[in-house]
Specification:
homotrimer, alpha/beta, Rossmann fold, four-stranded parallel beta sheet
């Protein structure tokens, strides 16, 4: 912890040259080989064009083929981060984050800026017509006149569906209550595919994925499970680790649907039972319930001493608390920083599709 | 009202393809024939150049000739929404909304972005020097260094005039207390002229306009009446419908000035008395008094069963409450959505003039 | 003070043409002859390139040579305000102002926009991961993915040093608690050099500088004294005027270091004792302590009757209170408005350097 005398020491150090920084990303942060994915997935523009008049509301709307094309475009962007600076030129995003967030908002806004677009932000619900009793329908009709795309995060999980009634521009659900967070799941699976591109082909061995959290209450997990089910033939099992406190681990019909789509799901309460067998460990301790933070699963923590399988990767949507110790940051298990980095590129890909600007970035038209 | 089981149904629907949306604007929303206005008004650049060193503080500063040229430029923008993307390149707007707003702020910011400019937003008065006791004069002097244009909305109706003392860049009054809202009035009259371009010529028959609200207390109405007086020769009468609760319907001298300028004004308390005769019905129930919403005229509501004249149009600056029922949205009377859409283009026109960039968009220099 | 009947008078005046404004800056505002500096300092690109992998945390990191090159680039920008509109094209600034500010934030954002860059703003600490207990280290790692540069102002004076631990993009300290405000000091000294370019050469006569305030408690003064020490050979004396209320005028070692670097420092409690001898008077009454404004030195005020030396200049970082009377605004002593204006150009220069874009603006590569 830095204190006042440390500040003076730091200042002396600063004078001595310690204001220098290293701009290169350390290798240990899972460089995530986007080029591999780029080579392994053939480009199919028509599949992406199907997104051109779609809202992005739920992970359930993505089939495997669409995911692969989105990942391919993300990989193209990530491999050439400075090349594509104008696809969204002239396009305006309405960035509406009624539920507090910096990480997701900056991720979207960065993606939009990188592609040359303009942004208008609403970060305070109380300044909007909602505070004056305006209907979400009318707000959608208003947005139609002002922008080309809406990105919405709201505690109220009905907002996005209600606005879809009047919107004639696409809206992306950036997290609605405890319901869904589709773009986070896209980023998560993009990361997994960069780590093991063979998953696309249906690996006979099958990877083992462990998810720490409660699927009925965490939107990141709900969306993630849905997308994982598209690659069920490459997944040996999904183990849900929970703390035994929550009555209903799954929403009505949630587990059945996932199993119907091919996932083999087990539930446990002891992470130590299976950790050493897992290839991918996904942790996510914080759950938003209304405007409070509800902490679930405080007993589940990972650190550099945890008995992780060699080559296993850890994912976490961040922000993190005690559940993911910083001692893991410099180990090869750290793919959570790569996950955050890739999230900008997957959003760039998605935004390019829904604004109908893919013709500006395809190899072949 | 959407509830949790509806969400799951909605999700199933989403999976089935209900994330699709229709990007085309329905015909019924008063397409507002901007091309007609474009043809009927000859371009006169000199008139627009007179705005180049003017603040936009009050509707009273606009004569008929200036209005027609602004409407012509708005119509040019509305007819060619993608053509003019660079007139404001290199220009910075300071968007200062001390009084909560999303609609007006996004309307201005969208207009500025569409023309290629950059924006800096201040949405929280407490972060400004005002909170530190800084004078508005000093804040104006500060703004001179940072931007090319200021757009200000403030509960305090004196702010805009005080800042004009030191500003050397133009400021637009985007609503000051209960005083004025000139650009809203510009949008309102632009809509009326798109509906009946003949008004410009001085229609011998004359249209009948009904305004529901209190001119002394509502800035949108104050500004609107002033602009309507420029077209008094085409207006048979203006009927003010109020609820009989407010003592002084007009500010001192307000009614006299309007009548001197040619408007024939009547007041009534029963909307039903005259509704069937009206060509334009303008409603606006909410009035901002300090930081509270004061609701006036709750007894005056319109819906699809109201005895409207065939071809009559309804205007409302929005956000709306119960006074304007959604049953009217799909009828030909709905020109309030076209009014909101046109507001972006009229602001584009005004902003182009005050930043001295009209030479980039005129047909003939 | 404007009141309601004045508003109506103002409106009549507005109708009569009083919405006009004068866009030209008055001569009396210290035009600050940037061209002189431009001619007197030879360009040395290598010196600026040394900033390309540096954070900007403390005034102490700037040597005289670097200062001169930064001032030269600022002077180039100030002399040609419209010429350089694209050096930061494609670059994203993360503008994080956790401590309320409008002046400094708009100054930075204006500088960045003028050079063609894009901006993402965080103005509410409660929306960030900090509110969720996220470490500053993790926030720095997040920022690495989203932008090219961070500008941070925080009550917590440790934030900038803590974030430097993980940042791989440059961060500028825009004011941390009572510690430092390096870019304000750069703007202050830039102004002094525009006033007397000879200072660079080491004037044999030496100017006398008077600073009203407490160096141990005011970040603007701490940073300013450090930069002034780089020009100690041209400064006859620095007189600190304080109100005798504060126990420790200087932080431990602060005065000794400055004297070691050549400044001759005296302290007094009576401004009137020496005012008539001073060439530069720097006042700054407000000091931020945590989230409250602590007002220091209320007894020290300047106005047009103060016995100022002919040709003396007054500097104030603004916002001002009673300590700097408006009667001085129209006098040749007013260099505080020029100081604010120049602050945008010095920030443009610094931002160009830390984003490694100087090659786009040098005369010779």
């Amino acid at each position: 912890m830095v204190n006042k005398s440390n500040i003076q020491e730091a200042e002396l150090a600063l004078e001595a040259g310690a204001v220098e920084f290293e701009p290169e990303t350390p290798d240990v942060y899972g460089d995530a080989h986007p080029k591999d994915l780029l080579r392994k997935i053939p480009e199919e523009h028509d599949v992406l064009k199907e997104l051109s008049n779609k809202h992005i509301a739920t992970a359930a709307q993505f089939e495997k083929q669409t995911l692969l094309q989105l990942f391919r475009l993300s990989a193209k962007y990530e491999s050439n981060p400075d090349r594509f600076s104008t696809p969204l030129k002239g396009k305006i995003m309405i960035s509406a984050f009624y539920e507090p967030s910096t990480r997701t908002r900056l991720s979207f806004e960065s993606a939009w800026h990188r592609l040359g677009g303009d942004i208008m932000s609403i970060t305070d619900r109380s300044t909007t017509g909602i505070a004056k009793g305006e209907s979400l329908y009318d707000i959608g009709e208003m947005f139609n006149n002002y922008g080309d795309c809406v990105v919405l995060r709201d505690n109220d999980e009905n907002s996005v569906v209600e606005m879809m009634e009047s919107l004639r521009i696409p809206i992306i659900n950036a997290g609605n209550g405890t319901d869904e967070h589709p773009t986070q799941a896209l980023a998560d699976v993009y990361t997994i595919l960069k780590w093991r591109p063979e998953i696309m082909m249906g690996d006979s061995q099958g990877i083992k994925i462990c998810i720490v959290g409660v699927p009925s209450k965490m939107r990141t997990i709900r969306s993630l499970l849905t997308l994982l089910s598209r690659f069920a033939d490459a997944i040996a099992e999904v183990v849900i680790i929970h703390d035994g406190q929550t009555e209903e681990l799954f929403s009505p019909g949630q587990k059945e649907k996932l199993e119907e789509d091919g996932l083999k799901i087990h539930t446990k309460t002891m992470l130590s039972d299976c950790l050493h067998e897992m290839d991918v460990i996904y942790i996510n301790t914080i759950s938003w319930v209304d405007d409070d933070i509800e902490t679930i699963g405080e007993g589940f923590k990972l650190n550099a001493s945890s008995p992780l399988k060699k080559g296993a990767i850890i994912l976490h949507p961040l922000a993190r608390g005690d559940e993911l110790d910083t001692s893991l940051d410099e180990t090869p298990h750290n793919w959570y920083f790569a996950q955050a980095r890739g999230a900008v590129f997957i959003r760039m890909a998605l935004l390019t599709c829904i604004t109908r600007r893919t013709d500006r970035v395809m190899d072949v038209l």
